[in-house]
Amino acid sequence: MLIECRSNVIKKPVVIIDDDRNILELTSLILSKHGFQPYVADSAHEGFELISRHSPELVLLDYIMPEMDGLAALQLIKSRFPDTYVVMLTGKGSEEIAVELMKNGASEYVLKPFNNRNLVERLQNVLRIREIELHNRELQKQQDHLLFEIEQWNYELQKRVREKSEALQDAQDEIVQSEKLAALGYLSAGMAHEIRNPLNSIALFIQLMRQTSTEPDQLEYQSKVLKEVERIDSIIRKLLDASRRTRVISSNVQINQVVDSAIEAFSPQIESRKIQVERQYHCVPQPITADPAELGQIFTNLFLNALDAMNRGGLLAIEIFEEDSRVIVRVSDSGTGIAEDVLPSIFDPFFSTKNRGTGMGLPVAQRIVRMYEGNMKVESSSPEGTTFRLEFPVCS
Ligand SMILES: Nc1ncnc2c1ncn2[C@@H]1O[C@H](COP(=O)(O)OP(=O)(O)OP(=O)(O)O)[C@@H](O)[C@H]1O
Ligand SMILES: [Mg+2]
């Protein structure tokens, strides 16, 4: 049986579930007089249907019904309709059961038989409590949401602080490095002149001695001295390169041409050591404003290192492409790679793992790249080889 009592005024829906028709009629009469819209059902099953159709704030539920006991019905209602509050109707003498029902989610219990005033007052109480509890639940939800957002902001803030600190540390490292290079430039310019003159004299005297020497040992020693003199001279030249020189800036330097001429300069070593050169120029890169000689220096230093790292028959690969208005050049070799513990130091002036290295190749290359607002880094390195990635802004 499913009875719906209709009224013209919009009232609060209440579902009453009881197998006793008298109770249903009486309760529904009382409630409709006090501003409620009662919907009645004489079985739990029909009651559920009414609840899902009308979403009432309140349900009056009989504890003893033939088809399903009140506790099971109560549990079902609370799990399926958590915002619906349930008032249990229990017979006299079943207060203990009523307590059990409250533990299971009932909001109130009313002992049968009940009188009008008592029933309405208690239902209104439950409705007030319901309103407060739902409001609290909503506030709790909002609070949880706000706490979650605060946590997210905190996380974001910490991330930004970390990023900024890292950027600051990088900037400080850069300052230290450029200060070292500046001091080096100042010193080397002065030293070069002082050292090169006596060096020239040494070379000259050795050459004179060679003209008169006949002893094979003597000749060998003299040639070794000459070689060492040349080495000192080349170190001085590198130091001079690191110091400032007059730049010849051009606004349309084609980086592929700069790379090609740098490779060209190494062709004797490349050929004699059977190094394979692979060029992948994906586009004609937009011109760069730069001093071509300075840019050439970058690639010379990189190719020197690559050749040092490779055995006979190695592979030197150069890739050029554009990305986000920047020209990207990747220089890869199939050399021995850079050890992990060495990697953080390779751009430091004077850092070298080579017996005869000055440790100026990479710091000089990096200084030039940065001068053109570019960027240079080791993209990857393993015992199979190393790839450097360089980025340059194109002319705007
Ligand atoms: N392509 C590479 N493969 C392996 N190791 C490299 C490579 N490029 C650089 N390195 C490492 O980085 C170090 C520093 O390089 P950098 O060019 O500054 O100095 P160097 O080559 O040792 O000396 P210089 O270039 O002044 O003669 C090298 O000693 C080497 O250990
Ligand atoms: Mg080098």
Describe this entry's structure for a reader.
The protein has 396 residues and is α/β, with parallel strands linked by helices. Among the domains are: 7-114, Rossmann fold (3-Layer(aba) Sandwich); 246-393, Heat Shock Protein 90 (2-Layer Sandwich), CATH 3.30.565. The protein contains ten helices and 13 strands. The protein has helices spanning 21-33, 44-54, 70-80, 95-103, 116-212, 216-242, 255-265, 267-272, 292-309, 361-371, and strands spanning 2-4, 12-17, 36-41, 58-62, 85-91, 108-112, 250-253, 276-281, 288-290, 315-323, 326-333, 375-382, 385-393. The protein has a six-stranded mixed beta sheet, sandwiched between helices. A five-stranded mixed beta sheet has the order 8-10-11-13-12, with helices on one face. α7 crosses α9 and α9 runs antiparallel to α10. It is rod-shaped, with a radius of gyration of 45 Å. Mean pLDDT is 88; it is low at 1-7.
